[in-house]
Design goal:
The chain has helices spanning 28-31, 36-42, 80-86, 97-102, 145-151, 161-164, 230-238, 293-296, 345-349, 372-381; strands at residues 26-27, 44-49, 55-60, 63-69, 76-79, 118-121, 126-128, 131-133, 139-142, 157-159, 168-172, 177-181, 192-195, 205-210, 213-219, 226-229, 243-246, 252-254, 257-259, 263-271, 274-284, 290-291, 301-305, 310-314, 331-334, 337-340, 358-362, 388-393, 396-401. Strand 20 and strand 21 (274-284) form a beta hairpin. It is globular. It is α+β, with helices and mostly antiparallel strands. It has a seven-stranded antiparallel beta sheet with strand order 1-2-12-11-23-24-13. Strands 14, 15, 16, 17, 20, 21 and 22 form a seven-stranded mixed beta sheet that branches. Strands 3-4-10-5-9-6 form a six-stranded mixed beta sheet.
């Protein structure tokens, strides 16, 4: 039985799938300067708190900024609104020939970026924890406002795969923290390890089993959801394998703007001997296979060791028996609040909501903007009739039961 496998047709520069996720971070070493030398001796570059995705503090010109760690980005990205305060555009004569070719056709997960949407920048020195990085070849400026709206915290830039490969990344989902280290972790510290494929300008590639066939997925830490190609979905449909179509009103944002895709629940994927059971995927017309943070969230803790091309983890099980979808309501972070937005007006009206409604409380609990992913999960999964929302619509405060 032949299966379509993952392949890359163009240079992957910026996945930046926002699927409306939530992150925050704080600089442990900055708050605890006496720990710097001890951590340096132990190999720790930075230890910082996270929410659901990996956002870390980065220091540029003595200013601390929030950067998303995105293995789907080839290089460092800077929000265009602050780029001119940090550096300057590269002259065409300063751009190495290989970068001219690679950046002439910038690909996102669902399409291409136009030349007016990004600019190539002269890199400058930046600091992650105890490490100064001053040898980058090229930076890119891009409008990251959608990323900020999605994550509930200001995102000033993106750490790409070139910087990712410099360090070891230990993420603890239970304790909500990430430790960046230049000392190799021991595989014996984890329940299991597996190798991954890696190559220049590409994301780490993990292998899964589907119906006893190997299927390759790129690991995209900048994406919330996972993707499979339309070709693969057609194969599943033609062979009448398990496939559940989901109705969704939520858009996904990426480098080129907001997009919509069809979402499905697939079964029978196995990773390194562990069944995933139900897993949510979006269709991808570019023929790409990605797993995002929804996959990594299944592990208690995990680590990427780029020098060994090894992924280690703790997880007795990563199986999900159900993925409830009770309602589809998109929200964003704007002006310090979580608000209903980017919904089809007719669809959202059936819930008694309007785009622009600010969510004040859910079941009498106030959620900070960085908890926006928790809010999305509640809106998506809680049974009908169990959510009591207090909202503000212009100058009016209202209570709504969903």
């Amino acid at each position: 039985m032949k299966m379509p496998l993952s392949h890359e047709k163009t240079t992957q520069i910026a996945s930046i799938l926002l699927c409306l996720s939530s992150v925050t971070g704080c600089d442990y070493l900055e708050k605890n300067p006496r720990e710097t030398q001890n951590n340096k001796k132990a190999g720790t570059v930075l230890e910082t708190s996270i929410e659901d995705d990996i956002v870390i503090p980065v220091v540029i010109n003595n200013k601390t900024l929030n950067f998303l760690v995105d293995t789907g980005a080839s290089v460092t990205f800077i929000d265009e609104k602050i780029a001119n305060t940090i550096t300057r555009p590269l002259l065409s004569s300063e751009i190495p020939q290989n970068y001219r070719q690679e950046f002439s056709n910038v690909a996102t997960v669902s399409g291409r970026l136009e030349g007016h949407q990004f600019a190539l920048l002269k890199p400058t020195t930046f600091v992650i924890g105890t490490k100064e990085i001053n040898d980058s070849d090229i930076w890119v400026s891009l409008d990251l406002s959608l990323l900020t709206q999605s994550m509930g915290t200001k995102i000033d830039g993106i750490i790409g795969i070139d910087t990712f490969r410099r360090f070891n990344w230990k993420v603890d989902n239970d304790k909500k923290k990430v430790v960046i280290s230049d000392k190799l972790p021991s595989a014996s510290d984890y329940q299991a390890c597996t190798g991954y494929d890696d190559s220049y300008n590409r994301m780490p590639q993990l292998w899964f089993k589907y119906k006893n066939n190997d299927v390759a997925f790129r690991m995209d830490t900048g994406a919330d959801h996972s993707f499979v190609s339309n070709e693969f979905l057609n194969y599943v449909k033609e062979n009448k394998l398990s496939l559940e179509l989901l109705s969704s009103n939520e858009p996904m944002a990426e480098a080129g703007g907001l997009t919509k895709s069809t979402q499905y629940i697939l079964q029978d994927f196995v990773f390194n001997g562990l069944p995933l059971n139900k897993m949510e995927f979006s269709d991808n017309q570019e023929g790409k296979f990605h797993v995002g943070m929804d996959f990594l969230s299944r592990f208690k803790r995990y680590t990427f060791i780029p020098s060994r091309m090894m992924f280690c983890y703790d997880a007795d099980s990563i199986e999900k028996n159900s993925i409830p979808h009770e309602r589809s309501i998109a929200v964003r972070y704007m002006d310090g609040s979580i608000e209903v937005f980017y919904n089809n007006n007719e669809e959202i009206q059936k819930y008694g909501l309007k785009n622009g409604d600010k969510i004040l409380t859910i079941n009498n609990t106030t959620y900070a903007p960085e908890k926006i992913k928790t809010v999305r999960k509640l809106l998506l999964q809680e049974p009908k009739g169990t959510l009591a929302l207090t909202i503000q619509r212009e100058n009016q405060v209202m209570d709504i039961i969903l």
